[in-house]
Amino acid sequence: MNKARRRQLSIFLGLAPALSVLTVLFVGPLALALIQSLGYAPIFGVREFPTLRFYTAVLGSTRFRLAFWYTMLYALVPTVLSTIFGTWLAVAARARMRGVRFLSFFVRLPLVVPYLVGAALVVALFANGGLVARVLFAVGIIQNTGDFPRILFSAGGWGIMLVYLFKQVPFTFVVVSSVLAGIGPELQEAARTLGASPWRAFRHVVLPRIFPGIVTSSLLVFAFNFQSYEIPLLLGPGFPGTLPVEALRRFQLPTIARRPEAMAYVMIITTLSGGILFLYLRAYRRWERSRGGV
Question: Under the phi-then-psi rule, with left for phi > 0, alpha for psi from -120 to 50, and beta for the rest, what region is 157?
Answer without folding.
Answer: left
